[in-house]
């Protein structure tokens, strides 16, 4: 007996083609809605974030969490040390829009502006930063440990006594400038204490302050000062994961509002609307987008003219740099 019925596959082909056509149209519409090439750059100019103000740079090759970076600096091209009033002023004078600085709680509940968990690497002192009072830290020579030639010479030894500032001194010296404070611990009590300090600032001053750091202190800080712009790994992850799911539609999740995003240059191209639409969408949500170098490890920045060639043309977010003296004028020129 002969079966004259057509094979099921043939009956389904027109439907499969229709589904494929619809999917193709949807993909094209999604691409068009998120194409920075079609929409062009947003309004405004790029800005510059000076990492630790202006300080000595160092070789990132093979660096680990416990590497003493002061012992591997490049031959000095200027006289400034990181996290100092002079280094911050030099960065702002060069044209930086924001200066990043590191803080540690002290034994007397002050906040010292210093990068390292321990003072042994950079200074002539010993022990954990938080086990010293602010007065004790101020007496240390913060230029003591720097060397560019494996210890043969120490070009800043003897020049750094009294240069470690407190956070209060930074606010007094820079009453109007944009500051990004980095909480170096993961202690929630440090976030609570920092909230107490920041709550004393006038509202317009606090609006020019952003804080980032460990998940626990930032969560504590957000509870005490919910209107403050903050960022941690948790807030960054929450925003980007949610945006990856719905950003194709142009919708910005609430997790992305009023925060800061440090976006590695290798990750940026995978974000919906990168770069122009993404930056514009986040700006409308009150969020600053900071482009950092490479994969985002070890505070890699855009530190010279050749690095800036990797920054997307027309980018209007913020560029992270360790050489504000070189890069800030070049970034400002891009916006003209």
Throw out a few tags for this protein.
single chain, globular, TIM Barrel, PLC-like_Pdiesterase_TIM-brl, GP_PDE_dom, Glycerophosphodiester phosphodiesterase family protein, about 35% helix, alpha/beta, 9-stranded mixed β-sheet, 12 helices, about 325 residues
Describe the overall structure.
The chain has 336 residues and is α/β, with parallel strands linked by helices. The protein has one domain: Alpha-Beta Barrel (TIM Barrel). It has 12 helices and 9 strands. It has helices spanning 8-33, 36-39, 85-94, 134-138, 167-173, 188-198, 203-206, 215-224, 233-246, 276-284, 305-308, 324-334, and strands at 47-50, 98-105, 111-113, 178-183, 209-213, 229-232, 260-264, 288-292, 318-321. Strands 1, 2, 3, 4, 5, 6, 7, 8 and 9 form a 9-stranded mixed β-sheet that branches. It is globular and about 80 Å long. This is Glycerophosphodiester phosphodiesterase family protein. Pfam families: GDPD.
